[in-house]
Write a structure and sequence with these properties.
The protein has one domain (2-168): Porin. The protein contains 1 helix and 8 strands, in the order αββββββββ. The protein has one helix at residues 2-14, and strands at 33-47, 53-65, 70-81, 86-96, 104-117, 128-142, 145-154, 159-168. The longest helix is centred in the first third of the chain and has 13 residues, at 2-14.
């Protein structure tokens, strides 16, 4: 048990972290608000809540809130498979921990989504507004395309979705 921990610590100490390579000017942006279509992404994944659904989704990067790292985005997801088809349309704000020029860009966010499903009239809690939690990261594929891996917790962490896809981002 001790050997893997020591090996992991040794790798972390010896390997320089990519975040240390960031130019200082990327962290010192003036305050601003920008609303524009700055990128989009497509993704697919699974619902981990036991609903046995395939999730297909898309996002639109809609702008910056006072810094390049605080992003507004819209997202939509379609759940297909066992049970009724589900639909989720959301508005999210994400914080990116490093600049877009880094090889890997982790982010964290939250928002509000409108949930609906097939035969919504028969369900008492349909349609509903769900709080969303987003945790993910992007990995450079080739400019301006990146891999996207994302975890979504919805409706107070009662629904869990894991998504993988491709996204584009603005070029500087």
């Amino acid at each position: 048990m001790r050997c893997p921990i020591v090996l992991l610590l040794a790798c972390l100490i010896v390997t320089p972290l990519r975040g240390q390579d960031a130019p200082a000017e990327e962290f010192a942006r003036p305050a601003k608000f920008r609303l524009a279509l700055l990128g989009f992404g497509v993704r697919a994944g699974v619902d981990l809540s036991g609903e046995d659904q395939l999730i297909l989704g898309s996002t639109l990067d809609l702008g910056d809130l006072y810094t390049d790292r605080l992003r507004m985005r819209a997202s939509g997801e379609l759940g297909l498979g066992a049970g009724a088809d589900t639909y989720v349309i959301g508005a999210e704000v994400t914080y990116r921990f490093v600049a877009d020029s880094m090889f890997t860009v982790p982010y964290l966010g939250g928002g509000l989504a409108l949930y609906s499903q097939e035969d919504c009239d028969s369900e008492p809690a349909c349609p509903a507004f769900w709080p969303q939690f987003v945790l993910g990261f992007e990995i450079d594929l080739r400019a301006p395309i990146r891999w996207l891996v994302e975890y979504h917790a919805e409706d107070g962490f009662s629904h869990h979705r894991l998504l993988v896809g491709l996204t584009t981002r603005r070029q500087r």
